[in-house]
TrEMBL record:
The keyword Cell cycle does not apply. Coiled coil: none annotated. SUPFAM superfamilies: FMN-binding split barrel. Residues 24-108 form the Pyridoxamine 5'-phosphate oxidase N-terminal domain. The lineage of its organism: Bacteria, Bacillati, Actinomycetota, Actinomycetes, Mycobacteriales. This is Pyridoxamine 5'-phosphate oxidase. It comes from Nocardia tenerifensis. One of its GO terms (molecular function) is oxidoreductase activity, acting on the CH-CH group of donors.
Length: 163
């Protein structure tokens, strides 16, 4: 399993760009999952970095979480509003792990309340998904070409230029 902490150590450029874009869009990302019929689904989500984990949590009972319960694979894409991608964008790929530890849930709920005032303290989580990252990439415009930075566990980052 590649946790968020391990990912940031192995892919500092990609993780930095992801966090910059994540922050610039008020934490909004697009989550790609697979529906029960095998077709892709795209859903908005506000993932959070918490205790060295990338948490993919949200409103219980949603179709995106039913998708992940059935098939844990996902793609997480930073929200892009600029068609020129002048600030770059990032994609993270992996599977989710459902963390059952209620003490982790309670600490997360408290942190969410402390950070943004959203109060889910004392509520049960249907699922508490964290990301096990399997690959990631960024796209950045660099003059007359694109720089595509790619990461896979244990391989570090590499840059491919597209003209």
């Amino acid at each position: 399993m590649t946790t968020w902490s391990e990912f940031t150590a192995e892919a500092p450029h990609i993780s930095d760009l992801f966090l910059r874009r994540h922050t610039a869009t008020s934490n909004l990302c697009m989550l790609g999952t697979l529906r029960s019929d095998g077709f892709p689904r795209i859903s908005p989500i506000e993932p959070r970095v918490f205790e060295g984990m990338l948490v993919i949590a949200g409103m219980p009972g949603t179709t995106k979480f039913r998708d992940l319960a059935r098939d844990p694979r996902f793609c997480l894409h930073t929200a892009t509003v600029d068609t020129q991608v002048s600030d770059g964008d990032a994609k993270l790929f992996g599977t989710v792990v459902d963390v059952a530890d209620k003490t982790v849930h309670a600490r997360f709920a408290q942190k969410l309340f402390d950070d943004i005032g959203f109060d889910i303290r004392g509520q049960e989580f249907d699922h508490f998904y964290t990301a096990d990252l399997t690959s990631a990439s960024t796209v950045e415009v660099a003059g007359d070409h694109l720089n595509i930075t790619i990461w896979k566990p244990g391989q570090g980052e590499r840059v491919v230029q597209k003209h």
